[in-house]
Amino acid sequence: MTLQNDTVALERITPALARRILVRDERPDDAWHAEYPLADELDPLRTLAGSSSPDPDFTMYVVRRAVDGVAVGGLGFFGPPDADGRVEFGYGLVAAARGAGIATAAVALALAHAARRGARTAAADTEADNTASRRVLEKNGFTETGRRGSLVFLERRLSAD
Question: Residues 6 or more apart from 158 whose CB is under 8 A from it?
Fold first, then answer.
């Protein structure tokens, strides 16, 4: 399954694709940026690679630029929504793709998808000094809910009950 808008495409990562990404078994249509995947995606990719039945919606996605289809990052949900409808996620882009609106578009696309699949609240965190990431979240309607150590926690309501 692929989600897309004018700026970005989110390609669902299956366990088989996760295994290929981990060993960098790139095929002609993969078009992975040389810096993809990011280091902080490796552990979640290993977990997904070993899964026999991952959630089909609240999983990991390759972030691709719509203009050329190059894989420039990842976005992942930390599981399906909890009993209160709250879903957590994270994202990242290779340095060369930052500052072009790709992360903002990817987050917007993922949140719309999550809302259609029953999530009512989205949550994310970022390092306090990562102003670019906080700005991406703020552009997508997130507000700060707290801080702990160097982390800033943000949330956004996705739909009304």
Answer: 85, 111, 114, 115, 119, 120, 121, 122
Residue 61 has pLDDT above 70, yes or no: yes
Other beta carbons less than 10 A from residue 43's beta carbon: 9
The structural domain count of the chain equals 1
Q: Which helix (H) or strand (E) holds 46?
A: helix 42-49
Please list the residues that pair with 64 across neighbouring strands.
9, 71
Domain of residue 142, residue span: 2-157
Question: pLDDT digits over 100-116, tens only?
Answer: 999 999 999 999 999 99
Q: pTM score, two decimals?
A: 0.94
Q: Which of 21, 143, 27 is nearest to 73 (CA)?
A: 21
